[in-house]
Design brief:
single chain; alpha/beta; globular; binds 1,3-dihydroxyacetonephosphate
């Protein structure tokens, strides 16, 4: 059985003081959560967030990192840095990083290996653009991205990590994939993992992300292939994020 996992991706929102206030608003609402939960905050918020999350089971995550342990990479952060600041997971290869910051399948692969080497849980993002979906390229695109990200890993590593299927056309647009579309493409991704690592595919958690909110979460989370959500906008509203986390508890199993 895969325990559901709900992760908030705050993107470039909330200062450290605002992060502390948001976490204080969320925690009482999810104290009975039956799923795993994480908040992936801006790197400068990690310290303040760690203080607030200390007595909870919610994981703290970063949104990116460099693959090198250290060096002349101005403006970048290493796995050791985000880990010491309090992160235990990290989002890698988000479509916004692929689109605006030249992230490639190759850099996502290097970052995934580095995160695992440092004991961080990678949340690896894949997903097709609107044009790719319209031209029938969804399965080949997510297959290529998944293969590239997982190439060279062991099946033990793959069974423990998290993939997030985020169709680019659904991110921040209010256009959510239907329950069936999301379930079908996540099934394709699980098939790729099965092909590469056989049994690991039954353990790897694959989330859906893209305009998931308090109203549509229960339907998506009841699909057999969908193991949770990576939540953008709705993760910044305490009541909405809590509703999604609590919906995941209900549909667990
Ligand atoms: P929205 O939930 O705002 O569409 O963002 C999804 C996302 O990109 C999470 O990583």
């Amino acid at each position: 059985m895969r325990i559901k996992f709900i992760a908030g991706n705050w993107k470039m929102n909330r200062t450290p003081a605002e992060a502390a206030a948001l976490i204080d608003a969320i925690l009482p609402l999810i104290k009975d959560a039956q799923c795993d939960a994480a908040m992936c905050v801006p790197a400068v918020d990690l310290h303040a967030a760690r203080e607030r999350l200390r007595s909870s089971k919610v994981m703290l995550g970063a949104q990116n990192m460099h693959w090198a342990d250290q060096g002349a990479y101005t403006g970048e952060l290493s796995a050791a840095m985000i880990k010491e600041a309090g992160a235990s997971c990290v989002i890698l290869g988000h479509s916004e990083r692929r689109q605006y910051f030249a992230e490639t399948d190759e850099t996502v692969s290097k970052k995934t290996k580095a995160a695992l080497a440092w004991g961080l849980l990678p949340i690896v993002c894949v997903g097709e653009s609107r044009e790719e979906r319209l031209s029938g390229q969804t399965a080949p695109v997510v297959t290529r991205q998944t293969r590239a990200a997982l190439d060279g890993l062991s099946s033990g590593q793959v069974s423990g990590l998290v993939i997030a299927y985020e169709p680019v056309w659904a991110i921040g647009t209010g256009l959510v994939a239907t329950d069936e579309q999301a379930n079908e493409t996540i099934g394709v991704i699980r098939g790729v993992i099965r092909d590469m690592f056989s049994g690991a595919a039954d353990s790897t958690r694959i989330l859906y992300g893209g305009s998931m909110n308090a109203s549509n979460a229960a339907g998506l989370l009841s699909q057999p292939e969908i193991d949770g959500g990576l939540i953008g906008g709705a993760s910044l509203k305490a009541a909405d994020f809590a509703a999604i986390v609590n919906a995941a508890g209900v549909s667990r199993g």
